[in-house]
Model the fold of this input.
Amino acid sequence: MKAYVFPGQGAQFVGMGKDLFDKSAKAKELFLKANTILKYKITDLMFDGTDEDLRQTKVTQPAIFLHSVILAAVMGEDFKPDMVAGHSLGEFSALVANKTLSFDDGLKLVYKRAMAMQEACELVPSTMAAILGLDDKEVENICASIKDEIVVPANYNSPGQLVISGSEKGIAIACEKLIAAGAKRALPLKVGGAFHSPLMEPARVELAEAIYTVKLSKGTCPIYQNVTGQSVTDPEIIKKNLIAQLTAPVRWTQIMNNMIASGARTIVEVGPGTVLQGLFKKIDRNIITMSATV
Done:
């Protein structure tokens, strides 16, 4: 069985999507449609912008989404997933690719999400850090022990790799404690704020209104969602999980284990980068991984 997975923020690169735009009339049409929907030429920033341009949350999220969903669209009959999943932002890409969510609505939601998250980031100085080489439970306990600051587990990426999220002071305290507890590394991440933490609550409230007004269809295959790690097909449950995702951790380790347990033997990463392929290899070396191509 084939699982198609979609990357999240951090996978962007200058020039992303340009090959699709040049090679495929369908891709060109969708990119130009995106410029119209967003009311600015995101293609200029994706194809010829700077790293600085692409690092802005309001640009990064729609750019990665567009690269992923347009690649899936131009694959045509070659895109035949038995199951899909997306890491954080990638969940929206996955829902468009498996036809649960329309291209137009998906892009509008992603842009709304990006703007709301950027605004939430500006309210409180906050950040994230990757913790390597420590048991998840140990990381959870140390985060819970910090009472005067917000610091929580945010991305369960693979065994021994957990990203924490919170206030700048909380993350600094946590990193010091986690190194003392035996973590191999505690790496501050270059991100705009504390994604997947309670500090994203204003963004969650704003996005909830938009998500509840959007029509979702029954997708062509199940999606494994970030909030639970479980397979979902019910549009109403998908909506609830999409809303909860902003302040809840990404349970990617659980998603990978559940996909493999459900029979996934080939993992195809659709979009920029190869990070998700590497994470699957950490779970099961026998899994076949590849990047989507046209």
